[in-house]
Amino acid sequence: MFDDHVNLVKLCVGVPTVDTLVDLQTRSIKEGRYAVPEHVTRYRPRRALEVLNGGSLYWVFRGYIQARQRIVALGERPCTDGITRCAIIFDPEIIRTKAYRRRPFRGWRYLAPGDSPPDLDRSELRRLERLFRATPRRPDQHQPD
Fold first, then answer.
1. For 7-120, which CATH class?
2. Which residues, 6+ apart, have CB-to-CB distance to 28 below 8 Å?
């Protein structure tokens, strides 16, 4: 990562897990909705140069930052209401991070690199996957395929 960058953090509303986000983005690309993953938001970051200098968007799922995606570009998307919005364009790879608690908020916020959770290494990821498979679930909870 670069020294003079800033990250963004955003709630992943309506998406309960990192796996669900991976599935949604993969399906959207296959269906031709976009060529690479993006999120359209109302406001363009004023600190765009810092965001584009190595920043990532950290996704919050159910109150915890759990993943990030590197931001590769910011674009413009005209909407049906006549307002041009900002498209945050991501690298397709979703990187899982250590879970950090985050209170609810609206929109996105800046996140300093020093306040950003570290990425999970492969051994931690394998341990969590084993734990997830071994955890009993209620019948109403999503079962992985």
1. mainly beta
2. 34, 37
